[in-house]
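Milestone 3.1: sequence recovery, worked example.
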């Protein structure tokens, strides 16, 4: 039993409209689900992904309009990287510049070209020109042509004071292998068939202060389990190894278990199913506010208190 790769990344944002305009408008991702934070019905929960919201393409946000900005530090994921087609870097340099997004000059890492910039809340995003980007159904209702579209996650980078415990978890328990080492960066990659989001980089910054959660922070990352049975097997295995694992939680679009890995990063293992088409058709994904059945009776009130947003249309950019 090995982990095949990332399922989703969940982060905190401030202004919902600005978040939507950046990820759908600038980066061309599809808003695949618009729902609310089940623990805080006055705020949105956005899910961005490919056309169908394939595991390994999903970035989710809790946008809290007045959220204070977080501070990057150890014990958290500090960079989220998407794969782009090998020839697409030039397109993205030009596009980001035209839309007023300041990117660093492209750098090379493990033989691949990396374009780095921040989202409006200061969250670090990288576009990595991959020799073999994942085959996904890129969203063609947005502003970015298929040849240049983001191809799901490439990797995430976690900053750690001491990566030893995390490295052991990845290799001895998850089945990842050490795939590269450069300076203070270790790259671990899932074994098995090539797929989306298979790498995680551990960046050692000795003595780094703990990250402070806020807007622009990654709250947790989720790895994939193909079904409920496998998730339960993971729960048992991790518990046996002494990780304090949460009970299984029903997140409507997948089921989740959570635990804090030895380096302090919140890890989740999420099932591939049932997926985003459980409460609206693939064609309609993200077009309406979706609520879990037990909250439908409060829809009117919820719609009233949620911050107003305008859904992205092709006309934005
Ligand atoms: Zn999650």
């Amino acid at each position: 039993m090995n982990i095949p790769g990332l399922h989703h990344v969940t982060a905190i944002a401030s202004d919902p409209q600005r978040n939507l305009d950046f990820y759908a408008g600038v980066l061309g991702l599809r808003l695949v689900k618009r729902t609310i934070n089940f623990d805080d019905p006055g705020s949105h929960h956005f899910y961005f992904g490919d056309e169908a919201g394939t595991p390994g393409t999903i970035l989710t946000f809790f946008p809290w309009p007045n959220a204070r900005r977080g501070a990057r530090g150890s014990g958290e994921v500090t960079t989220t990287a998407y794969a782009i087609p090998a020839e697409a870097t030039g397109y993205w340099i030009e596009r980001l510049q035209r839309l007023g997004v300041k990117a660093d000059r492209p750098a090379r890492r493990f033989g691949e070209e990396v374009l780095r910039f921040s989202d409006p809340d200061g969250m670090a995003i990288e576009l990595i020109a991959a020799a073999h980007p994942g085959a996904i159904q890129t969203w063609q209702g947005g502003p970015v042509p298929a040849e240049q579209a983001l191809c799901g996650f490439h990797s995430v980078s976690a900053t750690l004071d001491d990566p030893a415990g995390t490295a052991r978890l990845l290799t001895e328990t998850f089945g990842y292998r050490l795939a590269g080492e450069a300076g203070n960066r270790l790259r671990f990659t899932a074994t098995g068939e090539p797929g989306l989001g298979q790498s995680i980089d551990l960046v050692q910054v000795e003595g780094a202060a703990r990250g402070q959660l806020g807007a622009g922070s990654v709250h947790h990352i989720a790895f994939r389990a193909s079904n409920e049975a496998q998730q339960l097997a993971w729960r048992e295995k991790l518990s046996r190894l002494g990780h304090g694992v949460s009970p299984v939680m029903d997140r409507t679009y997948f089921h989740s278990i959570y635990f804090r890995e030895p380096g302090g990063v919140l890890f989740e293992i999420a099932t591939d199913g049932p997926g985003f088409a459980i409460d609206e058709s693939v064609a309609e994904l993200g077009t309406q506010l979706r609520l879990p059945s037990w909250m439908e009776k409060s829809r009117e009130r919820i719609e009233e208190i949620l911050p107003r947003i305008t859904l992205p249309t092709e006309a934005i950019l």
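The first strand starts at residue 6 and ends at 13. Helices lie at 16-26, 89-98, 164-173, 228-240, 299-305.
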